[in-house]
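User: Here's a protein and a ligand (magnesium ion). What would the complex look like?
Assistant: Let me lay out the input and then the predicted complex.
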Amino acid sequence: MHQKRIDEAKKRLFSGELVIFPTETVYGIGGNANNKTAIQLIYQTKKRPFDNPLICHFANIEEIKKNFKLKKKDKELASVFWPGPLTLILEKNKYSKITSLVSNKKNLVGCRIPNNKIALSLLSELNFPLAAPSANIASKTSVTSVNDLDDNLKKIFHIDGGSSVLGLESTVIKTTDTGCKILRLGSLTIEEIKNKFANYEIEIENSILSPGSQLKHYSPKKPIRINVNIVKKNEALLNFGKNKLNSSIKNLNLSTEENLIEASHNFYNYLNILDITECSGIAVAPIPDHDLGKTINDRLKRASHKDE
Ligand code: TXA
Ligand code: MG
């Protein structure tokens, strides 16, 4: 059904253009990871600073092994969680042709195999990896359906794969001698990793829990207030579970059943819908701080961070 679009995407990628494609987490804006000019174009289009590295997407582990050195724990995590929302930070080997622009001139590159039929079929027809950050303007919200694409990004060739199944970005991980370090919380939860690898020591990079130390990120245009117990006049409401909160502008509930998987799936799309109402700001109900709720809260803290 999507084959014609995939063929067209392939043609464009071979000629150095960018293409927006679906993954199971969020949509990505991709370019040939071996082509410096294509990668420059990604940073420019997204208005992203060059020191914020891009994730490379691969069709299978063999392609990753051609470009990177994998340690024992990398292989262990990969064997359980790929294809899926795991990004591993790996060291390039001497054969890799991936341009250093992808990773701020460093030898360490974020890699993942997405669990999405369109993405996998596109990747398997290319003879290079796709560097692809989320398909949004830097510091704005990630996009989980083509309708939510920024007007300027909509002009770029895109494949519509419906709404992203998971809805939150991949979890970025670097393995250590004793386990792993989480550099960005994401769709793969700490609980899932602990469940499969009970012997791993899991560190969480400090800065990801203290939003003040990070630039504003994952943010809608309107101001956000989190953990509210009252909705102010003219605020729209992003609710969770059953409670008495109510907005006179617009109410959306991430999951009335308090299901965090459903809430993650709805998260960015609902933020976008509320953002374009006549509201003065968005009030967000408390979200439980475990499993995917931890990732949602991480994004909310950054989105509500006020620039100094
Ligand atoms: O789910 C996802 O990860 C989506 C889809 C499209 O795959 N991509 C995505 O990419 O969210 P992006 O570029 O928006 O976020 C990449 C994150 C950033 O926080 C970046 O700092 C981190 O991964 N990252 C990428 N490469 C890295 C590296 N070499 N070292 C440390 N962090 C890295
Ligand atoms: Mg992003």
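Summary: Residues 133-134, 142 surround magnesium ion (ligand 2) (CB under 6 Å).
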